[in-house]
Amino acid sequence: MQNRWWIAAGGVLMQLALGAVYAWSVFVKPLAASYGWSIAQITLTFSIAILVLGFGCFFGGLWMNRKGPRIVGVVAGIFYGAGVFLASMSAHHLGVLYLSYGLLGGLGVGLGYIVPVATLVKWFPDKRGMITGIAVAGFGAGALITAPVAAWLIKDVGVMETFAILGIAYLIMVVVGALVMRNPPAGWAPEGWSPSARVQSQRSTREYLFKESLRTWQWYALWGILFLNVVAGISIISQAAPMVQQLTGVTALVAAGMVGIISIANGFGRLAWAWLSDAIGRRNVFITMYLLQVVIFFAIPYAHVFVIFTTLAFIVLLCYGGGFGTMPAFATDYFGSKNIGPIYGLMLTAWGFGGVLGPMLTAFLRESTGGYAQALHIIAVILLVATLIPLIIRPPATSR
After folding, report:
1. Which one is predicted more confidently, 257 or 330?
2. Where would I find the beta strands (DSSP E) of the chain?
3. Residue range 135-144: mean pLDDT, rounded
4. Which CATH number fits domain 4-182+208-392: 2.70.70.10, 3.40.1190.20, 1.25.40.10, 1.20.1250.20?
């Protein structure tokens, strides 16, 4: 039987390429300077990609249930690589950028993202939190590599040429990683493993069909928890480079480096919070992450020192990544692993809708008020109220 850790390695390679979408803020100022587009117009490209991504995850999950993960992953790499490559033809044509990077690229990211997540929870029932953290840690770390590389390429060869180079690289990485993806045999479990009583108390007592999961209030509660965590974190991700330049006065190159630094948190948070959730529970992890972000979103508009801003943004990205690292295990605990592809895939539409609301709200209020304080304070208040959701949620089989 194929070593399950090789499958995990393939998943990380896929996610490193797919997660490069989070380096989008590096392109914002060069595109604005070259073509006269507004920040809001450019940000819409990123929002389209994240919105389409969410639906791509759902369709990818359904497709995996019928055809397995390998074919879905290969098609994802082709779509994603082609979308980014075709963005190189969008000079002076904003609509082409939306269709290529936003629509086609976003669909590729969504189809690819669900593949290692839904596959690895089946191979690692003994380490659900840890393995989903590993499965998406590469996604969070993707911008760590891409941000400085893209900034250097933009300066050296131009922004459109950078899209072409990156598109080819992404296609190769995703397809290679997808080729090792496969599901375990039905009923497979690690030799000698059985869940402890504590673990059993945090999990549903049966496997849910996709339609059955949608008839529980817990599915919608988990969707809401993920949605709000996305709104918070992606508001920082989408505007990180211009935000730090405005608040601290650093150069574009330093800002690009900061994007890379906080991307470490996005990747590390996916692994660290997910690992912690195995020990203290998924609910407690989300309560802690929400409360941390409430404090930070009130403080960020006053962070006029580069090191302070970077530290606060780093913590937000830890929590943002933690949501994606923890939620696959959370959903699998509540609905089982058999149909987790479509169940969690549809739940990831929360990512898409959050990817529209967070960046567009932040960009709109930035342009209308001249600063970021109002948008960030609104998000802080929403998160404070929303902490009630992880406080009350329980597995469907034990809810009353």
Report:
1. 330
2. none
3. 79
4. 1.20.1250.20
